[in-house]
Structure formats: C-alpha cells, structure tokens
Amino acid sequence: MKPVVIQDMTIRFGGTTVLNDVSLSVASGECFGLVGESGSGKSTILRCASMLYKGWTGDVLIGGQSVRSMDPMERCRVLQMVFQDPYGSLHPRHSVRTVLAEPLRIHGIGEQEARMRQALIDVGLPVEFLDRYPHQLSGGQRQRVAIARALILEPDVLFLDEPTSALDVSVQAEILNLLQRLRDEKGFTYLMVSHDLAVIDHMCDRFAVMKTGDIVEVLPRDAILDGTAKAPYAQELIGASLTYEQAAM
Ligand SMILES: Nc1ncnc2c1ncn2[C@@H]1O[C@H](COP(=O)(O)OP(=O)(O)OP(=O)(O)O)[C@@H](O)[C@H]1O
C-alpha cells in the first residue's frame, strides 16, 4: 500500500497546455477518480505519472519516491496500468501464458507456473485459460487477463483508464466488483479515470472534477448525490449525469 502524490504536473502539446499545474494526493489504499469532459486531460495525468509521456514538468511521488528516480523495471514493480480497450491491449498472437510469463521473465521472478495460475485464480478465470489466445476470450475475460497481467508483479498502485467502458453493461459490473475485491484483498491504491459518475460512485472514495487541464474541485463520493459540490462546473457535470441516469431508467 502506497500513497500517490502528484505535484504541479504540467504538459503542453504543440503550444497547447493540456495539464496546468495539476496537484492531487491519493491516500494509501484509496480509490481516487478523475472525471471531466472529453479532452480535459484525465488520461494524460495517468500517462505522465506512469512515464509513458516524458515531456512534462512537476513530480509524482509513490510512497514518497519520485517516479522520475525509478528505473523502468522498478516502476513496473510499483505501478501498473489497465487500459480501456482489452482488445487492443493484448497481442492477438500471444497466448495468456505468454502474456503473463513475460513480466515474470523480464523481472527474473521464479515459480512462474504457480504465479501465473494464482494470477488467473485472483481474477476469477480457470487456470486452463493459460493456453487460450485473445480471440478465444470474451471482452470481459480479456479485461480479466489484462488485470492479471497488471497484478502479476504485485504492484502497490494501479492506474485504471476507463477499465470498463469498452465492455458490455452486464460485464462492467463484474469487472468493477473484481477490482473492488482485489483492492480489499491486496490493499492497492487506485487512480481511476472514468466518464461515468455511476462507476465513480461504485468504486471511488473521492474524485477530482477536471476541466481543460485544471482540477476544478476535489469531492467525496457522497457529493454525487448530496449536492455539496461548490464549483459551478462540478455542479453542472453532476447534475447532467443525474439527469441522464434518470432519463435512462
Ligand atoms: N500525445 C499527444 N499529442 C498531442 N496531443 C495530445 C496527446 N495526448 C493527449 N493529447 C491532447 O490532450 C488533451 C487531453 O487528452 P486526454 O486523453 O488526457 O483527455 P481525456 O480527458 O482523458 O479525454 P477522454 O475522456 O475523451 O478520454 C486532448 O486535447 C488530446 O488531444
């Protein structure tokens, strides 16, 4: 369990400021959400914090250590990312065994077979799935494999970028419940992007509302229903989401 502190994160692409001095703190074992309109910079925060993007200023501390001071191997042991699209994130010609064995091999970790089996059990898949290929799996099963891959190095922090939005509604709840169970069991700290306030309500302790590269307000989960948001944009976003949900019911 490690806290995550983002300090003054700023990035520009081609003269446009996409993140503007973003700072936030996520406590050990907390699930913290990032919401906001499309293009507000939510995914960019995760990409910078995991050093997928390099040209940013500011810092990210995980358990007090800067991600900039970690070598890539060390960073993989501390933090892992789960992406939105389980179809794109698994190589079509790599079996589940290959997907799960690779990080273990790179990091020189032994007892591979036992660890791979345990990772599948942890995400609720039969161990026989080690010999399947992505096209032999459903979308939800693929996302479970992507989560198993993220877990296998036993990281402290998971960055979740819309982990269920590419999935069928019925499967979304299964994956969210899985992520919640794993957090309870393993004490992960989650930083999670979602455009869906119902998902934030289900998963997160607190969330930040973002607009054009700035954090407008940080709120507890309860603010989704109790109307305590102060910033007009946060009120507007929450109001629009509730109206949409009522209309959809
Ligand atoms: N590598 C890049 N090069 C140029 N512009 C980029 C790059 N990555 C992100 N951007 C721009 O930064 C802005 C923020 O993108 P980001 O993906 O973080 O938004 P988001 O809030 O996650 O949106 P969405 O909810 O649609 O996924 C967008 O305008 C995007 O076009």
Automatic annotation (TrEMBL):
PROSITE patterns reported for this sequence: ABC_TRANSPORTER_1, ABC_TRANSPORTER_2
Keyword terms: ATP-binding, Nucleotide-binding, Transport
GO MF annotations, alphabetized: ATP binding; ATP hydrolysis activity
InterPro entries (alphabetical): AAA+_ATPase, ABC_transp_ATP-bind, ABC_transporter-like_ATP-bd, ABC_transporter-like_CS, P-loop_NTPase
Residues annotated as signal peptide: none
One Pfam family it belongs to: ABC_tran
Domain ABC transporter: 4-237
SMART domains per the UniProt record, alphabetical: AAA (SM00382)
GO terms under biological process: transmembrane transport
Keyword Transferase part of the UniProt annotation: no
Gene3D superfamilies per UniProt: P-loop containing nucleotide triphosphate hydrolases
Homology family: Belongs to the ABC transporter superfamily.
Protein name per UniProt: Oligopeptide transport ATP-binding protein OppF
Native organism: Pseudoprimorskyibacter insulae
